[in-house]
Amino acid sequence: MKNEETHISSYLSHAVVLIVLLILTTISVSVTGWHFGPFSVVVALLIASIKVRTVITYFMHMKSENLFMKLMVSGVFVLYALVIIITFIDYYFR
Fold first, then answer.
1. How many domains does the chain have?
2. How many CA atoms lie within 13 A of 92 on its CB side?
3. Domain housing 70
4. Using CA atoms, how far apart are residues 29 and 27, in angstroms rounded to an integer?
5. Are 62 and 56 in contact (CB under 8 A)?
6. pLDDT per residue over 21-71, tens digit each?
7. What are phi and psi for residue 65, nearest 5 degrees?
8. How far is CA 20 from the centre of its chain?
9. Do residues 56 and 69 both lie within one domain?
10. Which residues contact 32 (CB under 8 A, 6 or more apart)?
């Protein structure tokens, strides 16, 4: 680890991320009052995934990590999605 770089985030970037997350939280709370029919869950999950991406990118500093670490984090999400899909398939065929 002799070629390790330090990454320092500014207070401005944290403030912008905080404002974006607050706006997305406000949108997700207000969306619960609107009736999208079967797409309500899709809209809620889309907003939640944008929030997760923002938190991982800025607060977990994934934007400054190397490709291997980004692939490992992506692999965790793929594995989680596979477990959920397999669980629903198992539940469907019972």
1. 2
2. 6
3. 65-94
4. 5
5. yes
6. 999 999 999 888 888 887 888 888 899 999 999 999 888 888 888 899 999
7. -85, 165
8. 13
9. no
10. 44
